[in-house]
């Protein structure tokens, strides 16, 4: 099941990448590349960080095709994207949860300690979006808007708690989705966000 | 022969990096670093992605010296760069083709599948320029201007086709250069570019 | 001793990251992440580049906690940071020297050649700050301001020279700190900086 959700998730992430590329007037190639990086960049950074070679997508050419395909397809349906907004945000939230769980699993299989497992989950969850924003020359949105990265953090910890208490395997997968999706959707609806830190000195640090 | 072209290519890439650093008023150290990253960053990302350790340039100190040297030398000759523009663009295009072919070779030697080999070629070809632009805080040019990344894509596929049909070894090397250079030079001359995707909603995605 | 200084240094770097995040109005999560990346990003890039797995911080959860803790703590004491400016700059300079030496040591242990050892030292010293600036969407300051990256370069070479001449072990550690700190503090006081390369053509390179 996680694999199916993963494929849906990378499709959604690829589309979000394509739209960001469109805001920067990139050409077809740029759209395809940003879509690919947004969808698979988080997992790639995680794999490189944990020394988990070969990097996952290099063993699944299908992931390359689906993300590039989704990116280019987005160009065609871009004008309907506003109407699809709600579905899109839901799929994106599913992706965030799926990515986080998969990231935790990878790190656990490699016997990393708990804090690293949590970090691996978060990195898988949010780094695709961070790379997207870096490549589109804007400050990463996931670090500023409605609860997003925090959802990944909570899901990772909740998931590990369920594993620790040896909860039924299906529940261990389903519950984080329920918690993560509810939290993210509620955050979007009621504009929940973390406190923001604003700092504006004249000039002093290097 | 590929090695000679590679050295010429990293020199050209280093110079392009130095000029980008100059536009951001960087100091000598910044110029040297950006030159180095522009020239060798693509191969570095490829090596780290494919798990191809040790990373190539760490085994060839000469590459470090030549790129840093070329970067600093660019400061001296910057005022003549406009006159050298045409030569520069030609050498840059040679670099793009050489990088792409070398990237494909590295991935093939590690037994990656075809789509990954193509990706490795493209990444080697264009990621130096992408890193340069990220470090100089601008949207990557290679994803927006006249055919550039696409040339890398076409060269990679053409090169693999020649290998597949077991074409004579020299031709397998020479033909991609002819195709790649012609295409890139034609694109520059007649301003060929891929269709651009422009997307400008009010605000809706995360 | 180097370990103590390292912990102090990552604390200082984390704080500098948190302040940069504050300038971009990031939320608590963003502050924590940027603090973490600023403090440990340089070593991470070095480890990934040299194939030094597992990456250092993954084996020391304490480093994760201290950097994130320091980042969040910075929010509380931000208003006093201007008064602490001088101490902060001193600690930051200590960090630069400590990071550089540690980076050199890691590369030497892996039997890399001298130029790579120097590069590893510099990367460890300055890449945390570069990643911080990239993630906060600004041109890396370390490549533009008062001698900073150059201090790392000089310290790395000086340190290797002391090792080459088999100077007493304690001196080999203390002298680079004296040289590095003096140089950095003098650069800050008298506004020493490297010559800047300014290049502003109309438009010509790719």
TrEMBL record, chains A, B, C:
It is found in: Cell membrane. One of its GO terms (cellular component) is plasma membrane. The keyword Metal-binding does not apply. Belongs to the UPF0126 family. This is Predicted membrane protein. The chain crosses the membrane at residues 62-80, 87-108, 114-135, 147-165. Residues 6-78, 90-162 form the Glycine transporter domain. It is a multi-pass membrane protein. Keywords: Cell membrane, Membrane, Transmembrane, Transmembrane helix. It comes from Oligella ureolytica. It holds the Pfam family Gly_transporter.
């Amino acid at each position: 099941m996680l694999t199916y959700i993963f494929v849906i998730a990378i499709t959604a992430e690829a589309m979000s990448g394509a739209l960001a590329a469109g805001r920067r007037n990139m050409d077809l190639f740029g759209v395809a590349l940003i879509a690919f990086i947004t969808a698979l960049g988080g997992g790639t950074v995680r794999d490189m960080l944990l020394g988990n070679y070969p990097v996952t997508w290099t063993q699944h050419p299908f992931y390359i095709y689906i993300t590039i395909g989704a990116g280019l397809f987005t160009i065609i349906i871009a004008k309907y994207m506003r109407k699809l907004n709600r579905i899109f945000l839901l799929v994106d939230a599913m992706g965030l949860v799926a990515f986080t769980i998969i990231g935790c699993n990878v790190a656990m299989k490699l016997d990393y300690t708990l804090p690293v497992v949590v970090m691996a989950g978060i990195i898988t969850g949010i780094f695709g979006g961070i790379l997207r924003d870096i490549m589109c020359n804007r400050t990463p949105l996931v670090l500023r808007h409605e609860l997003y990265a925090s959802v990944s953090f909570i899901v990772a910890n909740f998931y590990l708690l369920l594993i620790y208490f040896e909860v039924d395997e299906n529940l261990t997968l389903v519950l984080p989705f329920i918690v993560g999706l509810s939290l993210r959707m509620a955050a979007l609806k009621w504009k929940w966000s973390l406190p923001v830190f604003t700092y504006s000195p004249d000039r002093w640090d290097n």
